[in-house]
């Protein structure tokens, strides 16, 4: 189901498709930068939501509308909301402690982090670009959501069951830790 | 201009974006001072892994169902991780009245 290959004879359809793609790329990049660098933590959560919406759009361009829906549902609808609850229940934005304000070289840490990050980015993207990935375009019928659902319930049913088990255990563990917890004497 | 129009048909675009997400996630993980900020950065790294899987699934895998199910698994794991991490953060906050990473140093020698 290549949703983009069947573009109708619409004027400037190519430009429209490329423009929407660039919009989603920009949303992803801007959201990631906001999530990593914003001063207040609630803005970081909003950045994560924006980034997730961008990634959902990219999934659509990668032929998988199902995953695009899931990305918005899980990340924006569940993860971000839960993190906002966490922000409400604790106080992440506090003034700097006295020890941190006395740091001799505040710029040094930032520079070191930027250099490490740039090195990781350059290395990983170089590997991605230099590798000759094998071309194996799958048949369009294999992209249908029906095919995905069938293999989810037949070939990959173990993964399907395991993920529900993991979620159940995670919820139980979260409840056990957050409700009672361990008292600090 | 033509290259710009074909950008979404190339695997390199998605791989570079995924590398960028990974890099920003690691940057946030290093720079953030609170546990919630580090959790958000970790989510970015999860998203980078998922995008990478999905891009290679679209352009290089013979069976497209595998990558989609794998990414679905990653999404589920990310949700479970957030639930666990936030409950741990709440427990830490209740005990220490702070979630700053510099102040949680009771085990430090």
CATH topology of chain B: Helix Hairpins
Helical proportion of chain A, percent range: over 70%
Number of strands of chain A: 0
Order of helices and strands of chain B: HHHH
Q: Strand portion of chain A, in percent?
A: under 5%
Name the descriptors.
heterodimer, A: 185 residues, mainly alpha, Four Helix Bundle (Hemerythrin (Met), subunit A), 71% helix, extended, B: 109 residues, Helix Hairpins, 4 helices
Explain briefly what this protein structure is.
The complex is a heterodimer of chains A (185) and B (109). Chain A has seven helices and no strands. By secondary structure, chain A is mainly α.
Write the layout of secondary structure elements.
The complex is a heterodimer of chains A (185) and B (109).
Chain A: H1 13-37, H2 41-61, H3 65-89, H4 98-101, H5 106-130, H6 145-153, H7 157-179
Chain B: H1 2-5, H2 11-31, H3 35-60, H4 64-96
Helix pairs in contact in B: 2-3, 3-4
Description of the molecule:
The complex is a heterodimer of chains A (185) and B (109). Chain A is mainly alpha-helical. Chain A has one domain: Four Helix Bundle (Hemerythrin (Met), subunit A) (Up-down Bundle), CATH 1.20.120. Chain A is built from 7 helices and no strands. In chain A, helix 1 runs antiparallel to helix 2 and helix 2 runs antiparallel to helix 3. Chain A is extended, with a radius of gyration of 22 Å. Chain B has 109 residues and is mainly α. Chain B has one domain: Orthogonal Bundle (Helix Hairpins), CATH 1.10.287.3510. At the A-B interface, helix 1, helix 2, helix 3, helix 5 and helix 6 of A face helix 2, helix 3 and helix 4 of B.
